[in-house]
Amino acid sequence: MSATTAPEPMTAPPARSDEAPAVLDRREGPFGEVVLRERGKHFEIIANGCFLMDTSDGRSERLLIDAALAALPAGRAAPSVLIGGLGVGFSLVRAAEEERWGRITVVEREQAIVDWHRDGPLDRISGAALADPRTAILRTDLVDHLRTGTERYDALCLDIDNGPDWTVTEDNGNLYSPAGLAHCHDRLTPGGVLAVWSAQPSPAFEQALRNAGFSGVRTEEVAVARGVPDVVHLALRTA
Predict the structure, then answer these.
(1) Contacts with 233 (C-beta within 8 Å, 6 or more apart), sequence order
(2) Paired strand residues for 157
(3) What is the pTM of this model?
(4) Alpha helix locations (H) across 156-200?
(5) Across 40-187, where does the E strand assignment appear?
(6) Is the Cβ–Cβ distance between 158 and 84 less than 8 Å?
(7) How many CB atoms lie within 10 A of CB 22?
């Protein structure tokens, strides 16, 4: 994903606005329109007219996975991870590259995004990771899965919209609400890690994590070329 200086919708990342994008696919789904575009050598995903992410720089998406693994208690064998949001696939690929992870579950509600990875242009990014026997894709809503599911995970790595302070789809704000964070807490094993990607730091969200009973709350930043840094918020379920 790309950071911006203000939470205003955009149709393309400003850094490459001089390059004309080519629309590869456009779908109207239950949550609005999603579009896959190609701009030069990179792909972009647009949701309801708002730029979500591209393939130009995946450092923060990889940090989401690496920081969660590093924060787990030492010696935990084959920890399971749930990745909320398939996106352009960088987080999934990073998880599949790390042999220490056990079960890798990806929750993605947009059928179009799943199709772009399974049978479309994004297969060149995620094909090997999707073929990994540890990987499972659940085509469902993340909030519903966390609320109704019973399975627990050692790590929840969530990359939904542009973070807790800027959601493209209104319902996604429920994920960052007190009830949503309570569901995240319930789905973690003791000592498990919640990692949340955001396009900007959010002290208010850090406090919300503490209010939800998480400990060890901290934020790691990734500097970007323009604007505020991308961040990963980290929090632990007390063992």
Answers:
(1) 164, 194, 195, 196, 198, 202, 205, 206, 209, 217, 218, 219
(2) 83, 195
(3) 0.88
(4) 178-187
(5) 42-47, 50-54, 81-84, 104-107, 135-138, 153-158
(6) yes
(7) 10
Q: pLDDT in tens for each of the 239 residues of the chain?
A: 333 323 333 333 444 446 789 999 999 988 899 999 999 999 999 998 988 899 999 999 999 999 999 999 988 999 999 999 999 999 999 999 999 999 999 999 999 999 999 999 999 999 999 999 999 999 999 999 999 999 999 999 999 877 787 655 666 668 999 999 999 999 999 999 999 999 889 999 999 999 999 999 999 999 877 778 899 999 999 97
Does residue 43 contact residue 36 with C-beta atoms inside 8 Å?
yes
| Residues 129/96, Cβ–Cβ less than 8 Å | yes
In 3D space, the residue among 167, 170, 168 whose CA is nearest the CA of residue 205 turns out to be 167
Give the whole-angstrom CA distance, residue 51 versus residue 104. 27
Residue of 196, 193, 182 whose CA lies nearest to 215: 193
CA torsion through residues 51, 57, 58, 61, sign: negative
- Give me 201's structure tokens: 């730091």
